[in-house]
Specification:
This protein is α/β, with parallel strands linked by helices. The chain has 19 helices and twelve strands. Strands 1, 2, 3, 4, 7, 8, 9, 10, 11 and 12 form a ten-stranded mixed sheet that branches. Strands 5-6 form a two-stranded antiparallel sheet.
């Protein structure tokens, strides 16, 4: 299949997109709702009308959904049995569960063809229920619709939208006399002052390469796709590639330029440790997805009041900074009890519930029905979202997940000084050129 064939097959228009969501390093937790814990059985009971809907969601989704469970059960007369786990673990287990017929009725998936358990991959394989007729699809914006669809059919529900933000410890900034930077030069100057104050300017936990990707997507939003929104189409049409596009080289060079301000030996540091360092003031700031902010807040006695965020600048023109955003999806397995599942998704699509979920996690609403959502944690970057200065995470329109995996692995080698940028980009091109499996 050619790159152009991929774009048509996926039913997606031009524009870049993003991240598999491998963001939480926390220990998996199981939420037993109303005494009915999901045990990965495919929930056969729900098929015979017992009124139980099973769900397997990411840790962050579980945090946002839990406060809504009681109201859903009261309104619907159904029981929601929900299990949550870090996204990396969920992705690994979900493919096995789908193959063995033991998957939950509803589960978290990523956009496009970005992983084996993404909407494009599973929708093309006939693993997902068609949700196109649901009334809430009329409240999806064009970008989210494109990332949730295959051949024009909607296969995923956008429960929220994550943004990549730089979270910082306000006390650490204040003691060093630092203000949130709005340009690249200001960012470098802030790092110098923080380093001189005796703290690590940028907390980086690159174990597994997971959080390294946030740097790539955040810088690419302003440097690559902001100036050329049609670039992904050009790459799919073999008109340009990673290695010969100067902006892609600039993305990785800027990451290397910041390395001296990052946590030493970051490849051996976990995301959890990285977050704890910012929470406890040992480091000043950390680039993260917005749904991980509650985890940062929980590590400090003052909670959310101790922190703030800004959008990562990539140039010295503040007006060119773009906010990377991406939908967080739920999908439904093809043989799920649709009447019950539709009640769940319909409940989650209500404006008040879209709003509550967004406010609980500090994410942007997934549907255009909660413009009054008060997402205090993201207040400094909301003007970018409201001004349409957003760009989807880069890897969501890449034709396969192996391109991203190569970036994660080779990115760690780049940080370790084992390879140079041209070699990394050539490796990414080799994976991209394989097209969609």
């Amino acid at each position: 299949m050619s790159h152009r064939d991929f774009r048509v097959r996926a039913g997606q228009a031009s524009g870049p997109a993003r991240w598999t969501g491998l963001c939480a390093g926390a220990v998996a937790i199981t939420i037993a709702v109303s005494g009915c814990g999901f045990v990965g059985s495919g929930n056969d009971a729900s098929k015979d009308g017992s009124g139980t809907v099973s769900a397997y969601v990411s840790t962050e989704q579980g945090t946002g959904l839990t406060p809504l469970v009681e109201a859903f059960e009261k309104e619907s007369g159904l029981t929601l049995s929900m299990k949550s786990a870090p996204t990396a673990d969920l992705n690994e287990q979900l493919r096995v569960q789908l193959t063995s017929g033991t998957a939950a009725d509803v589960f978290r998936v990523s956009p496009g063809f970005s992983s084996p358990v993404a909407v494009g991959a599973l929708g093309s394989q006939g693993e997902l229920a068609d949700l196109s007729k649901a009334s809430w699809t009329g409240s999806m914006n064009d970008s989210i619709r494109q990332m949730s669809s295959v051949d024009g059919k909607v296969f995923a529900f956008p429960i929220g939208q994550n943004a990549i933000v730089m979270a910082f410890n306000k006390s650490v900034f204040q003691k060093a006399g630092v203000q949130p930077p709005t340009t690249w030069s200001e960012l470098l100057a802030a790092c110098e002052k923080l380093q001189a104050a005796g703290v690590t300017p940028i907390s980086a936990g690159f174990t597994g390469g997971v959080s390294l990707q946030f740097w790539v997507y955040a810088l690419a939003a302003s440097l690559v796709y902001g100036p050329d929104p049609q670039l992904n189409d050009k790459m799919l049409a073999d008109e340009v590639n990673f290695a010969d596009h100067p902006a892609w080289t600039t993305v990785f060079q800027k990451i290397l330029d910041l390395k001296k301000y990052m946590t030493p030996q970051a490849n051996g540091v976990s995301i959890d440790q990285s977050t704890a360092d910012v929470a406890q003031g040992r480091a000043a700031m950390q680039l993260m997805v917005s749904s991980s902010l509650p985890g940062l807040f929980s590590g400090s006695a003052g909670g959310a009041a101790d922190f703030d965020v800004f959008a990562l600048p990539a140039t010295d023109d503040a007006s060119s900074t773009r906010l990377p955003v991406a939908p967080d999806f739920l999908a439904v397995k093809k043989d799920a009890p649709m009447e019950d599942v539709e009640k769940l998704l319909g409940f989650l699509a209500k404006p008040e519930n879209v709003k509550q979920y967004a406010e609980k996690l500090g994410v942007l609403p997934g549907l255009d029905v909660a413009s009054d959502a008060k997402v205090d944690a993201l207040a400094p970057v909301l003007p970018l979202a409201e001004g349409k200065r957003t760009t989807a995470f880069a890897n969501y329109l890449w034709p396969n997940g192996s391109t991203q995996q190569r970036m994660l692995q080779s990115g760690q080698q780049l940080i370790a000084g084992e390879i140079k940028i041209p070699a990394l980009l050539a490796q990414m091109d080799a994976e991209f050129d394989k097209g969609t499996p």
